[in-house]
Specification:
Blueprint lengths: L10 H22 L9 H20 L4 H21 L3 E2 L3 E2 L2 H22 L10
Antiparallel strand pairs: 1-2
Helix pairs in contact: 1-2, 1-3, 1-4, 2-3, 3-4
Length: 130
């Protein structure tokens, strides 16, 4: 019986785990440091990141939900990347954008897509001849 953490099909679940850890640490450390909830403010970025951690947690807990969770988070960060192209200082007036975000957001979006596509690969196994 497979644990759901091995093979190409587990790529979306590993994405969920790694990105949830990254965003969780980033959000928590920002809040502990005294994030501002002014507009725009780092506190709102932390709230957004923790919401993404919640989505990713579903993919960790339920392997069948991992591709949907990864795609959801990837889509959110893809939209953020597009919005940053038009208004580079903040997202929707609430979340400040810096140079690090301009690298991290498209990276998270692209990795989500890559992991979901990798997870969809099925090993055909040996061909049987009749």
């Amino acid at each position: 019986m497979r644990s759901g953490w091995t093979g190409a099909g587990s790529a979306p679940r590993w994405y969920c785990m790694a990105v949830a850890l990254f965003l969780g640490v980033r959000a928590t450390s920002t809040l502990v440091a005294g994030a501002s909830f002014a507009l725009p403010g780092d506190g709102w970025r932390s709230v957004w990141q923790l919401a993404m951690v919640g989505v990713l947690a579903a993919g960790i807990a339920y392997p069948r939900a991992a591709p949907a969770a990864a795609l959801t988070v990837g889509l959110v960060y893809a939209v953020a990347t597009v919005l940053e192209a038009f208004h580079g200082t903040d997202l929707l007036g609430a979340v400040p954008v810096d140079l690090r975000d301009r690298v991290v957001h498209p990276l998270l979006a692209g990795l989500a897509l890559a992991c979901v596509l990798l997870g969809r690969r099925r090993s055909a196994g040996p061909l049987s001849s009749t």
